[in-house]
Amino acid sequence: MPDARSLMDRYASYLPITDRTPRLTLGEGNTPLVRARALERETGIPEIWLKVEGQNPTGSFKDRGMVIAVAKALEQGARMVLCASTGNTAASAAAYAARAGMSCTVVLPAGQVAAGKLAQAIAHGARVVAVRGPFDAALAVVRALAEQGEATLVNSVNPDRLEGQKTAAFEICEALGEAPDALFIPVGNAGNITAYWKGFVEAARSGMARQRPRMYGYQAEGAAPLVSGKPVAEPQTLATAIRVGNPASWKGAVMARDESGGAIDSVSDDEILDAYSFLARCEGVFAEPASAAAIAGLRKRVRENGLGSAKRVVCVLTGNGMKDPDRARSLAGDIAEVEATPDAVRAALSS
Ligand code: AN7
Fold this sequence. Notes:
Distance between the termini: 48 Å
Radius of gyration: 20 Å
Largest sheet: 6 strands, mixed
Mean pLDDT: 97
Helix content: 40-55%
Structural class: alpha/beta
Bound molecules: ligand AN7
Strand order of the largest sheet: 1-2-10-7-8-9
C-alpha cells in the first residue's frame, strides 16, 4: 500500500520545516522503481532499477525540492518566486507558485528549452523571459535580481531545494530495504547528485540503510566541466536540460564522487540518443534525453571499467520523455497519410 501522505509529511523530521510551514502539495514523490530487465540482460548486472522521476506532478524530479522551497518562501511572506532554468525548474516553479497563489518569473536560455517545459511554464502563468546565452548567463541574471528585490530565488542554490530532493534517496532505501551498490545519475547544475548523496549519508546515519552507494554522475560531452575540471563557456548538447557550463553545486558533486568512491564522466550525444531509444523501445519507459545520460553512463562504465562487485544498481530517470516531443518525433520520418480503408493502411504498413 503506497503511503498517501505528502512528501513533506512523510519526511518532516528530515526537512527544514515547522508546524507553521504551509502543507503545500501536488502529490510529489513516491515515484516508482521499475526493474530494467532488458538492461540487465545487456550488461550482465543482476539487478538494475529505474527511479522514474518523470512521474512527479510536473514530470521531473524538481518537484521534490520545489515544494519545500515554495512552501518556505510562502511561510516567510514572499509573494514572488524567481528562477533561471533549462526548463524543468521553470515548469515546476510555475506550478507550485500557482498552487501557492504566488507569482513566478522564469529566465530561460533562448531557443534551448524543450517545447513541453515551455508550455508548462506558460500554462501555469509564469512570466517568461529568454536571454541570449546559456543557462549559466540566465542564472547570473536571476542571482543579481534576487539580491535586489523581494522575489525568492528557487534555483538549487536555495538550500531548501536540495533538502527536498534528497528524499528520493530515502525512498530508494525504503523500497529496496537497503541503499543500492551504485547510483547512476545525470549531472547538469549538479544540485541533484549533491542532494542524493546528502540523502544517502543521512539514510545510513539514521539506520534506514547500512551502506552508501558509489555515485556515478554523467555529463554530456559538450557540457562536461566537472570532467575537464574547468568551466565550459559555450556548452553544447541535444540534452538541453543538462546544457550547463559552470555548475552551481560543483563542490557538492565532487564531494559526492570522492566520498562515495564513484566517478563523474561524460557521454556523447550519440550515446545519449541510443540509450533514450533503448529505454523507450526495450523497457517501455519514456524518459527525456538528459535522463538517458545516466543509462548511457552505465553502459559505458560496464564496457570500459566493469562495476566491480556491484550487484544492485539504481539509475535516476530525472524527467519525462513527453517534455521534449520534438526529439522523439525526429526519430521517424514522415508518417504515411492514406485513405481510411483497410487496404490502404495495409499497403502503407508494408511499403
Ligand atoms: C531532466 O531545469 O537545471 O544536476 O533548470 O531537467 O541538479 O542540474 C534541470 C536539470 C537532469 C540535471 N535531468 O540536474 C533546470 C535544470 C533533467 C533535468 C538535470 C536536469 P542538476
